[in-house]
Design goal:
A 4-stranded antiparallel sheet has the order 3-4-5-6, with no helix packed on it. It has a 4-stranded antiparallel sheet with strand order 7-8-9-10, with no helix packed on it. A 3-stranded antiparallel sheet has the order 11-12-13, with no helix packed on it. The protein has 1 helix and 13 strands, in the order ββββββββαβββββ. The protein is mainly β and 157 residues long. It has one domain: TolB, C-terminal domain (Neuraminidase). The protein is 6% helix and 56% strand.
């Protein structure tokens, strides 16, 4: 789980390396306005933030959990499927019967100097194990898993 990743840009002819050494890079998304790039660094427990033009790292959102895939809601909040116990997730990756907790975070990024992170969902590995993504639609939260079949649907308050 210590792997490193890089960000590259392909212009149609060649690849330009933009950043490297991202600790287990995973989820990646652009901001709704297309000006920023967000990259999950799973084993670092954070999300790197970059300006796209010109490209440069401008921030890091500490999440203190194994952040995975990233998704936006209609209000501009970033939703994150996460692994709060990375060693349990590693065990789960080798044996699907060994359950791994699931976690979902909602991050308000309106002020990137002080993003507001809220834990929306957490479990002990049941009814869904090893959550990897979360999306919101019409007051419902859909949680996907790395290895479990199906998704979990949760009604939001």
């Amino acid at each position: 789980m210590i792997g490193t990743g890089s960000i590259g840009y392909f212009d149609g002819k060649m690849i330009t390396l933009l950043d490297e050494g991202i600790r287990y890079a995973n989820g990646i998304t652009t901001s709704p306005d297309g000006k920023k790039l967000y990259v999950a660094a799973c084993t670092d427990g954070s999300i790197n933030v970059y300006d796209l033009a010109p490209f440069k790292k401008t921030g890091n959102i500490k999440c203190n959990t194994g952040v995975d895939n990233l998704e936006w809601d209609m209000d501009g909040n970033l939703w994150v499927g996460a692994h709060p116990k990375l060693l349990k997730f590693l065990k789960h990756s080798k044996n699907s019967e060994s359950r791994s907790p699931s976690q979902v975070l909602k991050i308000n990024v309106n002020n990137l100097d002080h993003p507001v992170t809220t834990e929306i969902y957490i479990n002990d590995g049941n009814p869904i194990s090893g959550s990897s993504c979360a999306a919101v639609f019409k007051g419902r939260l859909l949680i996907g898993s790395v290895f479990d079949d199906g998704v979990l649907l949760v009604k939001l308050k």
